[in-house]
Amino acid sequence: MKRQARLLVFVFLALCATAVQALAGGEIRLSVAASMTDAFKELNGEFIKEHPGIAILPNFASSGSLAKQIVQGAPADLYVSANKKWMDYLLKEKQVVPETVRIFARNSLVFVGAEDTLVHDLGGVATLSRIAIGSPKSVPAGQYAAQAMQVAGIYEQLEKEHKLVMAKDVRQALLYADRAEVDGAFIYKTDALLARRAVILLTVPAELHDPIAYPLGLTLAGMKNPDAQAFLAYLGTPAAVTILEKYGFTVASSH
User: Fold this and answer.
1) Is 119 annotated as a binding residue?
2) Fewest beta carbons within 10 Å, which of 71, 76, 192, 212?
3) Is the pLDDT higher at 234 or at 254?
4) How many domains does one find in the chain?
């Protein structure tokens, strides 16, 4: 009799746990390039308003760091990169589903600093003493900046003179410029709109670097997560486009 009672209690508790789990809803784990932090915070909030039972767990960092984390087993349903290189890396590692990958936003590269800094072109940048860029090894903004400086013929000179200050991501580069810890920084236009003190001194000509495109795609885990699939669909809606444009992104329609 006691054994039967214990069994009934166990079944009751198991049913309760299942019910609570159902009420709690699902989870969506996002790995998003740091330059999209503010836009995705708003996108996440608006999505949750329509899907209150879903929890969104974002991880914002440099595209390279996020890609390496995913390969090493970090949980993620959706990956958003600030360049094609790191998405291609995950495709090669078979960590994202090719059919879900698309370019969904674009950006531009600018150089920011104090308002009284006299810089009108990349040649002027070479005359400064401390220049912040995201580390080209893992930060797409840094890779674009390095490309532009190489084409302009100033990159090797700046490296040789130890003028480049490496940042872990584009937001840190902006912080250095805002705090006047450097004379200027290469960042995205969208990040420049968030600057407290630094201003745009120069828009880097687009022909000097690869196109700044943001590919996104579902991971293998995300493809099995209906909530992640719903979120991916939401990112293509007019409401999501409006939010992206609000933060300075150009919405891409091409794949």
Assistant:
1) no
2) 71
3) 234
4) 2
113 with 100, same domain: the answer is no
Question: Is 188 labelled a binding residue?
Answer: yes
Mean pLDDT, residues 134-162 taken together = 96
Distances in Å between the Cα of 126 and the Cα atoms of 104, 111, 131 are 34, 12, 9
Answer yes or no: do 38 and 51 share one domain: yes
Q: What are the strands of the beta sheet with 78-80, ordered from one edge?
A: 55-61, 27-33, 78-80, 213-218, 102-106, 250-251
85 with 37, same domain: the answer is: yes
Structure confidence at residue 5 (pLDDT)? 45
Does residue 129 have a known ligand-binding role? no
Q: Is 63 annotated as a binding residue?
A: yes
- According to DSSP, residue 96 is labeled B
Q: Is the pLDDT of residue 19 over 70?
A: no
Q: Give the H/E segment covering residue 5.
A: helix 2-24
Same domain, 102 and 223: yes
Taking phi first (over 0 means left), then psi (-120 to 50 degrees means alpha), and beta for anything else, what does residue 169 get?
beta
Confirm or deny that 135 is annotated as ligand binding: no
Q: How far is CA 93 from CA 65, 85, 90, 96, 219, in A?
A: 15, 12, 5, 8, 11
Residues 120 and 101 in one domain: no
Q: Do 40 and 60 contact (CB within 8 A), yes or no?
A: yes
